[in-house]
Amino acid sequence: MQTIPDALVQLKAILAAGGSPTGQSAPSGVYVFPTDYGTIDGSLTLPVVICSEFVGQENQIVRKAAGLARHDWQAEILYLVSRGENAYPNQGAADAEALHTGIVAWLRDTLFPEMTLNGTAERTGEGGAAGSVLFRYVVDHYQWNRTIYWGVRAALPVMQISRVTMAAG
Fold first, then answer.
1. What are the residue ranges in the chain where pLDDT is below 50?
2. Whole-model pTM?
3. How many domains does the chain have?
4. Disulfide-capable partner of 110 in 8, 18, 39, 45 (CB 3.0 to 4.6 Å)?
């Protein structure tokens, strides 16, 4: 059975093994929230990556034939590069905007060859066909432990398949 926690552990492993964006430092850590919550440095040594299920987003379970169910959900990847203010413009925003193209290319190059998250997902992205979206991203500010950080937030669609016991009759 493919589960969200298993997929997030594999996403963490893939990103941790992915090196670093061109011309940038490798992340000081790659974490899964909530699993790693107790070990995430409260002040966050930057850059840092935090993966989680993207909360506040609509997910779906789709009934398939032969006792199979498809679970469509999104993983959230936060790649935080600088501290800043909840105001624009500021130095944190400038840092994030200057670095984001390298971060997005790194995410693309790291995630594209691992579209099953090491077998814990049927696939990632919005579809398996050429021209389909792998992930969506935004450069913005994010609050972690009452501190404002700037960076890239990526939403990675994940599709998992599970066998479901069917009732007789």
1. none
2. 0.92
3. 1
4. 18
